[in-house]
Amino acid sequence: MLPRAKKSYGQNWLVDETVVKKIIQASDIKSNDLVLEIGPGTGVLTQALVDAGAQVVAVETDPSLIEPLRQRFGGRIQLIEDDVLTFPVHRFFHHFSYKLIANIPYNITSDLLRHFLTQKPKPSRMILMVQKEVGDRIVARPPQMSLLSVMCQLYAVCRRVSVVPAGAFRPIPKVDSAIVQFDLEDPSLRWRIDPEMVIGLAKFGFSSRRKQLHGNIAGSSTKFTSEQVKKALSLLGLDSRSRAEALNIEQWVQLTHTLNE
Question: CATH class for domain 195-259?
Answer without folding.
Answer: mainly alpha
